[in-house]
Design goal:
The protein contains 25 helices and ten strands. By secondary structure, the protein is of the alpha/beta class. Strand 5, helix 9 and strand 6 form a beta-alpha-beta unit. The mean pLDDT is about 85.
């Protein structure tokens, strides 16, 4: 007797298949050819969204091998009671016909999550019967949204209207924004959804404040009709899965690596994001010194990319890590001044090459194009369509722009004047992590904190006795005195270990 396969069928293991008539079969086969074409043109490029280049590590750097599905809930981190919490998954979103806006903090893996959804919807077209389209919100800032979809699907301008009316489409949009600069793009998106009701929208957006539900989408939601869902920080289960994926095929002590990583994250307050975990695993692999904070973690990673990867190191004796860091900080400032913020500060390759020539002519006798192409080859910069270049990841851009504070005192003064600092939060975070003895910045931040908490501080001073009573320790009630010695001798189950790790991770701000 066979065991009923309830994963793909009913409770008794049965599944029915519709035998298509000639017209429907012809339409299905035509759409399958479109989906096959999408797969052949775009799948390989998606792996470029992984910050790690294959040549820089022994790990298999592809979305299929490294991706770990995050926890997706209907509220930001720890914001609802358990009974009010709804959990979503890639499968549940793809199987639904509803629209979704997925919010996540910076570097929480939003782009890779959309990539994975796009991959799954393409491979499982037979199951979901939706033609997948993956675009960036900025793609239709300068192009008509219909043209963007038409170019992606290779549908002619004469057929695109009929195609969108008669077929179910799942439209993945990365980095959607609801600020005032995006009004025209949002209006064109709303018009698209109104005109073609068979389009399902799945979009990702930045969550600015970790525990606050955004409201900027509300004025558009009469048309978008989107469910809000939120990517959560990695839990111990997800971190363990990423470690397993990283070391697949190798004999490693999973528990030991998990303990090392959790301890480092607690000691140094590192963010519990896929990016931080991946960078840390990479540092472990290289057997580097432990980073003491996130800024140093990024610096170690960049130093390895520029100096210690398996790529031939051009001009290593005369153009070292310090020279390259300085140049890239000027590149970041050039992109900040000349690039489009809505397009990740991209600049034209030819214009950037001209900048390299002007910068290097008095500092270094080498070939500017060779230096520029080397940065692209190493994965610091990335080349994209229309002859444009940008930093491969946003955190690279913020890191190198932060370094520019030291090379350009005028720029640093501008950042720390008035409320300008509010536009440079990431840069200031990196800078203070690297320059922990900068008295000027410390004084500035202290002044801003005093301004923000002046009323609160006055209240504490006036009621210090109440605060002291709350903070007084009671030894007999601390966790140390509550441990059951008999239970302490028993080995913990894997679930209990995961819960212990999660408790530890929850203490990280």
């Amino acid at each position: 007797k066979f065991v009923a396969n309830t994963d793909i069928g009913t409770e008794d293991g049965k599944k029915s298949f519709t035998i298509l008539k000639d017209e429907k079969l012809e339409l299905f086969e035509a759409n399958q050819r479109i989906v096959d074409g999408i797969e052949s043109r775009f799948f390989e490029k998606l792996n470029d969204d992984i910050i790690m280049a294959a040549g820089n590590t022994s790990a298999n750097c592809s979305i299929d091998n490294l991706f770990v599905e995050p926890t997706i809930l209907n509220s930001p981190q720890d914001n609802l009671k358990e009974e009010d919490t709804v959990k979503y998954s890639i499968d549940s979103i793809l199987a639904s016909n509803e629209n979704y806006i997925i919010y996540g903090l910076k570097e929480s893996g939003k782009t890779l999550l959309l990539d994975k959804m796009f991959i799954e919807s393409t491979r499982r077209f037979n199951q979901f019967n939706k033609i997948p389209v993956l675009v960036k919100f900025s793609d239709f800032k300068k192009k008509n949204i219909l043209r963007v979809i038409r170019e992606f699907t290779s549908i002619s301008s004469g057929e695109i209207d009929s195609f969108l009316r008669n077929n179910s489409i799942i439209l993945f949009i990365d980095d959607i924004s609801f600020n005032n600069r995006a009004k025209e793009q949002l209006e064109s998106l709303k018009e698209l959804l109104n005109t073609y009701p068979k389009i399902q929208l799945v979009a990702c957006s930045d969550l600015v404040l970790e525990n606050v539900i955004p409201t900027d989408y509300l004025e558009h939601n009469d048309v978008l009709k989107a469910n809000l869902v939120f990517i959560q920080n990695f839990s111990s289960k997800e971190i363990k899965k990423l470690i397993q994926n990283w070391y697949v095929g190798k004999e490693v002590d999973l528990q030991e690596n998990m303990q090392k990583l959790i301890k480092s994250f607690i000691d140094f307050g590192l963010p519990k994001t896929p990016l931080s975990v991946t960078l840390f695993l990479w540092i472990f692999e290289k057997q580097e010194k432990k980073p003491i904070n996130n800024s140093v973690l990024v610096e170690l990673f960049i130093e390895n990319l520029l100096e210690k990867t398996n790529i031939e190191n051009i001009y290593s004796e005369t153009f070292d890590f310090t020279n390259k860091k300085r140049l890239l900080s000027f590149v970041a400032k050039y992109m900040y001044d000349s690039g489009d913020a809505d397009y990740s500060y991209v600049v034209d390759y030819v214009d950037l090459l001209g900048f390299f020539k002007n910068y290097l002519k008095t500092r270094f006798h080498g070939q500017p194009q060779k230096v520029l192409d080397d940065f692209i080859k190493r994965g610091i910069l990335t080349y994209q369509d229309d002859n444009l270049v940008r930093f491969k990841s946003a955190f690279f851009f913020h890191y190198f722009l932060a370094l520019h504070f030291d090379y350009n005192p005028k720029f640093k003064k501008y950042v720390f004047t008035g409320d300008n600092y509010l536009s440079f939060i990431e840069e200031i975070t990196y800078y203070t992590g690297l320059k922990r003895d900068d008295v000027e910045v410390l004084t500035f931040t202290q002044e801003k904190l005093n301004e923000a908490y002046s009323d609160f501080n006055d209240d504490i001073k006036a009621n210090y006795d109440k605060v002291d009573r709350v903070l007084e320790s009671k030894k007999d009630k601390t966790i140390t005195f509550q441990i059951d010695e008999t239970k302490a001798k028993n080995k913990l189950t894997e679930k209990q270990v995961d819960e212990m790790y999660d408790d530890s991770l929850s203490t990280i701000p």
